[in-house]
Amino acid sequence: MKYIDEFRNKDIVNLLLKNINNISKKDVVLMEVCGGHTWAIQKFGIPSLLPENISLVSGPGCPVCVTSKKFIDHAVALSRVKDVIITTYGDLIRVPGSTSTLNEEKSKGADVRIVYSILDALKIAKENSTKKVVFLGVGFETTAPPSAAGIINAKVQNLKNFSLLSSHKIMPPAMGALIDEGVAINGYIAPGHVSVITGTEIYEPIPRNYGVGCVISGFEPVDILQSVYMLVKQFETQDFKVEIQYKRAVNPEGNIKAQQVMNEVFSLRDDWWRGLGTLPLSGLGVAENYSEFDAEIMIPVEVEETKEEKGCICGEILKGLKKPNQCKLFGTVCNSSNPVGACMVSHEGACNAYYRFNR
Ligand code: SF4
């Protein structure tokens, strides 16, 4: 509790707000690219504390939100194959595909199981040697290393009935692409969990090439406000760089072992992001050396043509161009019990966080 008290301390919050007010002169737009930050920013009402000239916008940081509908359709198609068991993190089963969800397929008899880690999926594979077990790998540099370790583990155990359908992505190409597209961003609140793995180097091109600062932030109110202060200071002094606010968890080198495991099992490929389209070398496909664990190769299926929802503006929200409450479906047709788009499904999605804390 002492730890939480320290990072939610009202006096420190007030001091930080005073400091922000003192240095902030110009209009500034800061984007968070981590679903955990999206959730925390809304939960603690951070935007309402800040002066009007500082806007916080959400970017493509929620893994479920950026995952393509094609990936969901692919998983749905796999779930319909005889003797296939789909294993997945919970959020994904509610994400709408073009014509179905994994939840709907489960209710029709498909074997879709929620797991808490890839290790659970490996256990299911061991216990069901006559079935083919597919793990759905989503998320950024945070979840890719455990997926990679799971595949190495499957290889060591000589598991022949286990494979991964990968939608893993890396964050930096999206951060650059948003600025290339002309989205007005004056600073990135860079992801805390991703950075535990990657360290700081992956963000260096952002200040160098675009003149936009990056501050790696923790998730408590004091963390976020201190990060805002650091970014506003960089902007006001035009001294753009990568800084770590979340020093209790992130070091500049990151987790070298996790990086090695990820690089061993995955190879970079072009990938599709909701809102941004296909970004070169932004996705992680299973590397050739591990192709016997690649569900795309091991269980070929026909995937239906992608159809996007009418009226859903997730794409614009993920680019920071619109707020969830600017969507006509927000809170009415689309709500957390009946999500129309991916941004309402995951609790890290901007629409879901707005719906919970900012209706
Ligand atoms: Fe899509 Fe629902 Fe968000 Fe609107 S409120 S953008 S329909 S997820």
How does this structure look, described?
The protein is globular and about 65 Å long. The protein has 359 residues and is of the alpha/beta class. It is built from 18 helices and eleven strands. The chain has a five-stranded parallel beta sheet. Helix 2 packs parallel to helix 13 (221-237). The model has no long low-confidence stretch (mean pLDDT 95). It has three domains: 5-62 and 174-244, Rossmann fold (3-Layer(aba) Sandwich), CATH 3.40.50; 64-170 and 254-298, HypD, alpha/beta domain 2 (Rossmann fold); 314-357, no CATH class. Bound molecules: iron/sulfur cluster (SF4). Residues 312-314, 317, 324, 327, 329-330, 334, 340-341, 343-344, 351 line the site of iron/sulfur cluster.
CATH-derived architecture of the largest domain:
3-Layer(aba) Sandwich
CATH topology call of the largest domain: Rossmann fold
Q: Describe the largest sheet.
A: 5 strands, parallel
Helix proportion of residues, in percent? 40-55%
CATH class of the largest domain: Alpha Beta
Query: Which of globular, elongated, flat, extended, rod-shaped describes the shape?
Result: globular
Count of individual beta strands = 11
What is the CA-based Rg, rounded?
A: 21 Å
Structure classification: alpha/beta
Task: Give the domain tally.
Answer: 3
Superfamily (CATH H level) name of the largest domain: HypD, alpha/beta domain 2
Spatial strand arrangement across the major sheet: 2-1-7-8-9
Distinct ligand kinds = iron/sulfur cluster
Q: Helices and strands, in N-to-C order?
A: HHEHHEHHEHEHEHEHEHHEHEHEEHHHH
Mean pLDDT: 95
> Helix segment count?
18
Gap between N and C termini:
29 Å
